[in-house]
Low molecular weight phosphotyrosine protein phosphatase
Amino acid sequence: LVFIGNICRSPIAEAVFRKLVHDENLEHKWRTDSAAVSDWNVGRFPDSRALSCLRNHGIETAHKARQITKEDFQTFDYILCMDESNLRDLNRKSNQVKDCKAKIELLGTYDPQKQLIIEDPYYGNEKDFETVYEQCLRCCKAFLEKYH
């Protein structure tokens, strides 16, 4: 799961997917991580509002922001992102990687409610983070069901 800064949407999506995988007893089948396209927040914990939102749903995370690497494109089967800007950046970066095996697509592609874009809640409020959580939950459930 890849996003611009790796402190709002992607840590939520990563934590949600990790919990779904755990709840389904599928940890042996999935390696989950999240990363940023940019290096703005490398080493930082997720936004406090993202952490609060996750805690409200009984989910903890120890994630620290990192930037996507060439190896990510070579080792992960799927790289899912939140918006067209991320998608463009990731496709551009993947073209510079020899042996890229990752399928790059929007996480919203899996949304049963057809909300393709998951908007960045950074400049919003707690309600916006809750919306991101709900979208990520729907999309991650559908993604896991498809590839489980």
